[in-house]
Design a protein that fits this description.
Elements lengths: L1 H9 L12 E5 L3 H12 L4 H15 L19 E7 L5 E7 L5 H11 L4 E3 H10 L10 H12 L29 H7 L5 E9 L5 E10 L17 E4 L3 E7 L1 H4 L4 H10 L4 H13 L7 E7 L4 E5 L7 E8 L6 E6 L2
Helix pairs in contact: 2-3, 3-4, 9-10
Length: about 350
Amino acid sequence: MFTSIVLCTFASLLPLGHASLPLVINTWPFKNATAAAWRVLQSGGSVLDAVERGCARCEVEQCDGSVGYGGSPDESGETTLDALIMNGDTMEVGAVAGLRRIKNAIGVARAVMERTDHTLLVGQSASVFAENMGFVAEDLTTNKSLNIFSQWLQSNCQPNYRKNVFPDPSASCGPYEPRATLKRTKRAQHASRLSHDTIGMLAVDRDGHMAAGTSTNGMTHKVPGRVGDSPIVGAGAYADSSAGGAAATGDGDIMMRFLPSYLAVELMRAGADPSAACKMAISRIKRHYSEFFGAIICANTTGHYGAACNKTPGFTRFHYMVSNSKSDAPLLKSVDCV
């Protein structure tokens, strides 16, 4: 029933643009990450290698301070990492959440996928597994992350991300008013790109094999132990080489409740072009959280791609990167939020 309705809805829509393979697409203007993944595909590497290399580039470069070490300290001042990688051919997934002391989170996620029977490892145990796999333990704290944490403490912004907590009325930061006065607009502003974000990446080779991946250091000043959407399969990313792939970015606490990446892929399987699939996935969340901060990228296995975002104050246009055989170089793309 669901499939027939969607097919009817999208039967008249033609794919946008000229499809071109291979393809790399990722969230935000992280050009070096796109280029790293593209070089892998151009040299004959696998889509898994491409996604891992691209996300790892952002981890090394600490893209926008929201990926990799030295960013988004939690309430205790510690930086922890989340990552996911998915094989669209086999439907295998590896993911880590709350990873401590290991900089290469996407690499550990791939090790979980290829060297265990599990899907997701978390916290200290994930770090021990990584060290057993040969990953080097390092301090993820930097002077920048220490300064972020110190300024937060000095601003008396505690407690953070709590409901029904009565703060000092003169406080100017943190979403911790009593529930009766907490406005969605303030949460949208707090859970903005300034406080967190993610690289989400999709790669498709010339034969339509697909992989997806994510990497992030989570939300700034999060409650220790908080896990967002990035390492959750179907939420942060999803890939199926028989249909397509998608990756999400934004307020993970909201977005993960709707599995937007999985939904977008299923919509493409049912006949929707990638842009329409992205828009519908965003619209599903918007029905319940009209001012949530978020966006999604989508691509099908023929090389068509698209993106969509939810319009909020200060976030009216979403930028993402694309590289395919038509461009042969990373190109900055954008889409108006709705």
